[in-house]
Fold these 3 entries.
Entry 1:
Amino acid sequence: MDPTLKLHKASSVPLSDSTVCKRLVGCLLYLTHTRPDICYVVGKLSQYLQSPTNIHMQAAHHVLRYPKGTTSRGLFFSSSSSTSLTRFNDSDWGACLDTRRSITCICFFLGTSLISWKSKKQSIVSKSSSEAAYRALAQASCEAQ
């Protein structure tokens, strides 16, 4: 998806028939099981399925073209990789334009292989970027346990 595109509820004209957009995002959700690189954008698109607009549909079509052009990418589990568990987490302060809540992203690697990932809106509006980062760290620690 275009990184400069900021989606929100009233971004464009609502679709007259939203079932096509809902089916397309549903197919993309199914695809995220083997393509974690599209998880964030598919999650972002799924937030607007109640009343999708033309912009949301265009973004969904753009995401659909990405896996077609990158068929050689996907999850890879190497047999010679180490067994050390590594966690990465980050937050995007006030990323949701509608609710002003931050988004937490968490990735777990076993050696060099991605084994778990999560991207979720935080339940409380953070007053600063450091508060959002602290909440992301706390959530990642709970996921690790």
Entry 2:
Amino acid sequence: MADPTPTKAPESRRAFQLSSWTEAKFIGDVLRTETVGGGLLLLGAVIALIWANSPWGDAYTAVGEFVPWSGGEALHLDIDLSHWAADGLLAIFFFVVGLELKREFVAGELRSPRRAALPVIAAIGGMAMPALIYVLINLNTGDSALRGWAIPTATDIAFALAVLAVIGSHLPQGLRAFLLTLAVVDDLLAITIIAFFYTEQVSLLPLLGSLLPLLAFGLLLRVRKNWWWLLIPLAALCWGLMHASGVHATIAGVLLGFMVPVLARPGEQHGMAEQYEHRWRPVSAGFAVPVFAFFAAGVSLRDGGIGAVLSDPVALGVIAGLVLGKTIGILGATALMTKFTRADLGGLKWIDLLGVSLLAGIGFTVSLLIGELAFGAGSDRDAHVKAAVLIGSLTAAVFAAVILVRRNKVYRRISAEERRDRDGDGIPDIYQPEHQLGGEPDGSARPAGTSPGSAASPGRDPAAR
């Protein structure tokens, strides 16, 4: 049976149209998984902060500086545990990101230029404005502060979804899809920034050499040779050569993710990218990212405390970029798009988009990584950046929670309507062809010009609550 898709208004006029039921179920699965990962990420960061500021803080520093393998000078692998977490474990995280990106471009929201336009433009605005605010605050500092311009541009979707889980928000599916798609585009832009702006010196021979295991990895998957005993060594070799080239090794994870086929072949229930994401997401969300957070978030505030952090323009730029820049950039870009395309918000209110924009200001994993690349791990300025990322993310989370909790009753009613399945076929009524053609499941007609999710439908309009 063909996958039913709702048509509540002309696609070009809907800013937050619902996707297909298959896509809706996928988004729900991602949300359930990521919230667990976000909670573990938060736990790792809290443990690190407590340990780093305890009387045993020196032991925390010693653990991060421990070098487990001193014989890897040839491939620049004689690095300490904190660098292994940032360069090695985060490659797993970026591998999953690569799978998400390819899936979105091939079979998800980004496959349609019209549907992708709004989250793409919003993501660009949500990265440009934080960078601009950061630069304006640090323009006259006269030192290397401007190297950190990209720190507040990233969104940590796992952390953001963990906040959603805590406040119990029932965000409408269209708004959740917008948040997830925006975060995917945000990840793509962040990867591009790391590759082009935080790679100082490139060794061409190892870089070219990394392409050979990468292509072999992709070829094996293309012919469906799922030999883990060969695929994992090829991935590790690609990562090692990429690391030795001077390009940040997490880029290898993204490229490996791009090599995995998305579409299922005849006889396959699920595409290979979906299978790999199902296998590796728990490793990423349950181990790789929390361990990175443990080593990256342990900033000591014993010397100077919060006062020293807030007196540093770099820290102020990061905080303002995350809290104000993300919100202004996403809201402003969305407002421009809806004005020029004459799209409506599909029964949602601008206060809803404000809450989601604030959630996008929760920057953690990639922000901390860019901070280390910009100023060097362990430096005084890097410590200020870590504290600023935590303060900015916490502030954005609190503001978003205040807004979304107040709207949660509305979201719960909208969510119940989206899940209603009166004919019991396992597909909510809102995705059924009868709704697309203007009829209701009981055979009654809907008023002309309205749809199940349009503002003219009193059962779906948040303003009517």
Entry 3:
Amino acid sequence: MGKIRNAERTRKSILQAARGEFLEKGYAGTRIESIAQRAGVKKQLIYHYFSSKDQLIMETIEDLMSDAPPSGLVLPVNPAHIAEFRLDVNLKYLMDFLKFTAWEAIETFPSDLNGEERREKVLHSYNEDMRAKQEIGLVPKDLDPAFLTLMISSLTVYPLLFGNVTRMITGLTPDHPEFQEKWSHFLRLISERIFHDAKPNS
């Protein structure tokens, strides 16, 4: 049992080191040697647990996405609360994953390495949730559910990733409690204005 536990610890240590390297240097800039140095192991040991850098990036992304609990994917019934909810989930659980997506925006690598299938499934579930709310009268009929999802994604990701822009515009950094409180409140206000005309079907 001791050997198994040690092997699990070593594997987790390598994955943690890989996470740090990928987030700091991106996929292209990360080297197995730097992961080994960060983890405090020999390069050969990494290949004992992971067949390649591709496997490491795939498992790292899976690990990043798994930081959020299952409840983080269950959207509020009231559509006016969705943006506020998703901002909270991003701040509490998904900042490292969002940092990875920033690298993804400037690097090109095969979609089968970036967890696209799982991510697309989650995002499409948001579309379907918005569409279902539209069918029962909670979302205005003239608003495209997919574009609503895109809008909410933009508003709950961009200010967190582009911290310098957020600071220059608002005078506050994304990690400042005052910004988070005010932005959350703002998201609630504009969401209530977007959805206030919708009337639940009787």
